[in-house]
């Protein structure tokens, strides 16, 4: 009975005691491969109540605006949806928020793939039993299903990438999506059916994706979450390479929020476009309650 009670407390804690927000950084102001703690984050300002925002992916940037796709989590519904957030680049205030995809299941991690001047998204939706690719029209914020990328319910926080004219999808799989195995899928076409071809073992609790794989100094870099000591505590950057026709991930650095930041308990998404970096961070609404719940969670293993 005690364990059941604590599980209820844990669910309340998971959805109502934590608040995530979006942060913006100038790429030239940080050294990803040498800096341990990041600071001077410009946290997004908004007046939306009883909801929070995470998993930012950049649609476009300009002198005046930053346009993102984000997970918008409504605490009353206890599930996320995908929304377009327009941020004023001058004062970092949210100018508008528009829902672009909402289902009966939880949606998050609205990863973006650009092809032939078109924008596609493939948000995490493992509760539905498949990973869908949607064509997104930023002019009217409409989405339509393009195809099914992976037809299984275990794939979490995926990243599509084309290397040497081969199409790959990197993800982790339930129920150990935050552990030490990165799954690699391949398809003959970028928008085709992806099948698993190999697994990469990494350090404990750093496998789960934290954003798009990106190129830095002519090398592919995969961001992932450091879940040691809790979900989404920091970002791990690893060099992605191919040796003997197999993928290899070599850890380069880990970054964490500076404790002087307002959202300083962890970060778990990193994306970059046109020298603009977006991350997310979280804080506890009730610090003492959070410490008690974390203690109970460690005792009963939830």
Q: Helical content, roughly? A: under 10%
CATH superfamily of the largest domain: Glycosyl hydrolase domain, family 43
SSE-based structural type: mainly beta
SSE arrangement, N to C: HEEEEEEEEEEEEEEEEEEEEEH
Low-confidence stretches: none
Distance between termini?
A: 15 Å
Number of strands: 21
Structural domains: how many: 2
The description of the largest β-sheet is: 5 strands, mixed
Strand percentage lies at over 45%
**Mean pLDDT, nearest integer?**
90
Number of helical elements: 2
User: What is the rounded Rg?
Assistant: 19 Å
CATH topology of the largest domain: Tachylectin-2, Chain A
CA-based shape? globular
Q: If classified by CATH, what would the architecture of the largest domain be? A: 5 Propeller
Strand order of the largest sheet: 2-19-18-17-16
CATH class identity of the largest domain: Mainly Beta
Write a brief structural summary.
This protein is mainly beta and 302 residues long. The chain is 10% helix and 51% strand.
List the helices and strands and how they pair.
Blueprint: H1 2-16, E1 18-26, E2 37-38, E3 42-43, E4 51-61, E5 65-74, E6 79-88, E7 94-101, E8 112-115, E9 118-121, E10 131-137, E11 142-150, E12 155-163, E13 166-173, E14 181-187, E15 195-201, E16 214-216, E17 219-226, E18 234-243, E19 246-257, E20 270-273, E21 276-284, H2 287-300
Helix pairs in contact: 1-2
Can you characterise this structure?
The chain has 302 residues and is mainly β. A hairpin with a 4-residue loop joins β10 and β11. The chain folds into two domains: 1-17 and 287-302, no CATH class; 18-284, Glycosyl hydrolase domain, family 43 (Tachylectin-2, Chain A, 5 Propeller), CATH 2.115.10.20. The strands form five sheets. The chain has a five-stranded mixed sheet with strand order 2-19-18-17-16, with no helix packed on it. The longest helix has 15 residues, at 2-16. The protein is built from two helices and 21 strands.
